[in-house]
Amino acid sequence: MFIFLMLSLLAALTPQEGDTYRFPRYPAGDGTTPNILDLIEGRCFEYLECVPPINSNIECDPDFSFNCTSLVMDFKKDIAYQEPCTLGPDAFEDFVNNTAQEFPPNSHLLWSGTKEISHVYGLFTKRKTLEDSLVGFMMNDVAFCGSVETGFDFRQCPSCQTFSESASGIFWPKASAKFASLASGEVEVVLSASNGGRPSFRNGSIFRSIEVPKLTSSKVSKLTTILVRDLGDNSTTSEHCGAGSLLELKNIMHEKNITFSCEENPNRIRAIQCATNPRAKECIDLFNSDKEPCSSYTAFIVVIVILVVIIIVVFLLSLYYFCVYKHTKDQKYKTFTSDKKSENRASQSMDVPIPMDDIVQV
After folding, report:
1. What's the predicted TM-score (pTM) here?
2. Helical H runs in the chain?
3. What is the residue-averaged pLDDT of the chain?
4. How many alpha carbons fall within 13 Å on the CB side of residue 281?
5. Which site among 25, 193, 309, 322 is 20 to 30 Å from 148 CA-CA?
C-alpha cells in the first residue's frame, strides 16, 4: 500500500526525460544562457528567501548571510572577457568558496550518471545533492563561456581541446570537491548499473576522481552505495554489488576506514522508476510483492477493530445492567416489599378482637 501511495506522488514529480550528466551537454551552436548574470542572481535571492520552485530540496536557513550581488561578481570576474579555454586552475575559486555551506550530518547525497532519479530520491529522503546547495542551485543547467570581445559568448561556446579546459569543466569539479569535503556522518551515493558495459565506478567520473578523495574517516563514518539498473535492463554486462568496480570502491573505503555497504535496486528507488513506467515487468513484480504485506496489515487492522467493538459492547452492556436494569429491578423489589408490608398491616388490623364495651347496644 505504501508503494502505491508513493507512486501516485512520484508520477507528478519524476521528470520524463533529461540529461544524466552533472554538467549539461549542449547542442553545437549553443552559447551562454541568455541573461546569465541576472538569472543566477535571481536564483540566489530565491534560494535565500526560501522560495523553492517545484521539486526543489533547498536548505532554508534564516541565518544565511550570503551577498548575492557579490557572489555574482565573483563568478563574473573569472569568466567575463576571458579566453574561454584558458581560464586556468584557479578560476571560480572565490565563487565556490564564498558559496560553501554546511549541511547537517547524514544528509549528503552524491550521484554519478543518475541525475534525475537522484534528485527525486533526495526530495523524498531529505538528502541534499550538490544541486540542492546554493552554488549548485544557482548554476544548475546553465551554459557559460567567456568572450574577449563581448564578455560572454551567447552564440556558440567553443570546443576546447579537452573538456577540463572549458568553463564547465573547471567549475563543476571544483564545486563537487567542495561539496564532498563538507560531507559528514553517513553519506549515500546513487550509481548507474546500466552504462552500456562501462563500470559504475568508472575512471574519469567526478565521483571517482574528485569526490571520493575528499571523503575522510574523520568526518564520514559510512558510505552507502545504491546501484540502479534501468527498467528492462537484462544485460549481462550490468554491474553488481561486491564485484567489478563496486569491489574497487569497497576496498578504497576500507583503506579510508569508512564503512561501506551496497544495495541493488532497493524498492524505494524502483518505485521512483515505476512512477513513469508502471507496466514494466519489474514494476508488476514490485506491486505483487506488496500485496502480501498489505493483506496482513489489513487483517491486523480488522482484528483490532473487532476487539475494540467487542470491548465497547461489553462496556455498554455493563453500563446498562448497573445503571438501568439493576436500578429498575431494585425499584420493583422495593415496591413489592412495600406492598407486602401494607398487606400484612391490613391483615393484622382485621384480626384484632373488638372490646365488648365498644359494641353498641341497639
Report:
1. 0.72
2. 2-13, 36-48, 68-77, 93-98, 115-125, 134-139, 167-181, 206, 244-255, 267-274, 281-289, 291-320, 326-351
3. 82
4. 4
5. 25
